[in-house]
Amino acid sequence: MKKILWMALCVLLAGASQADEFEAVRKAIKSLAPNVTIDEVKPAPFEGFAEVLLGAQLLYVSEDGRYLIDGTVIDVQNGRNLSELSRGAVRKEKLGELPGAELISFKATTETRHQITVFTDIDCGYCRRLHEQMGQYNELGIEVNYLFFPRAGVGSASFQKAVSVWCADDQNSAMTAAKAGQEVEPKQCTNPVEAHYELGRQLGVTGTPALVSSNGTLIPGYVPPAALLGQLNNIE
User: Fold this and answer.
1) Which of 13, 74, 79, 186 is least surrounded by Cβ atoms within 10 Å, i.e. has the fewest?
2) Preceding omega of 186 cis (within 30 degrees of 0)
3) Domains of the chain in sequence order
């Protein structure tokens, strides 16, 4: 019993110590932007700094709260983009929380080798080009899971098209028709389109198509099927 109480006390003390450690960091952020929401503060992957997540923005703040770095940090010795690794972990976590029912999926027609999430805009030219080659992606073992990111914003014509696709009786067929420039029957229903859009903004999506691998790596823009398979083989 004493041993259990001692372990619990150690955990509480460790948590308090970590909170105190980051107090100066939080104060520094709030002094610059009092109304900002700090999503997470944790030790940076290099000494003397904390890593701070503000939505899609990643900052590094010295533990004493004096210095702030807003930019990409590279581990030159090991050739690693430390900032992208952290952002990738956040993307993986956030996308992993989405229920499968919120995705419009085009399954691999052979053994599934990779799964990607694609933030898409119905009217985006390169999004349409990607969808035209959906059969090739699927034949290569790449499963494509769509989320909506109407670049013109909530309430735009592209947004309404996305809602109609989501509310269609056959979402996959409606998506294919819409991507081909065909008119989809206007429909309304409870839908996640706005939530998809906000999630994309939170994860740093600024253009479409935005491809995210299963490990959270962001691949911006259209990539031909064979080239995408090569990239996924290298990063996963």
Assistant:
1) 79
2) no
3) 2-94 (3.10.450.70), 103-235 (3.40.30.10)
Q: Which two tokens stand for residue 199?
A: 């999630």
Q: Would you call 127 a catalytic residue per the annotation? A: yes
pLDDT tens-digit map of 63-103: 999 999 998 899 998 888 998 888 899 899 999 999 888 99
Long-range contacts of range 76-83, CB-CB < 8 Å, 24 or more positions apart? Answer: 82/44, 82/45, 82/46, 83/58
Active site residue 124: yes
Instruction: Report the C-alpha gap between 10 and 4 in whole angstroms.
Output: 10
- The structure tokens listed for 28 are 């520094």
H helix and E strand count, the chain: 9, 11
User: Residues 91, 123, 151, 167: which is the catalytic one?
Assistant: 151
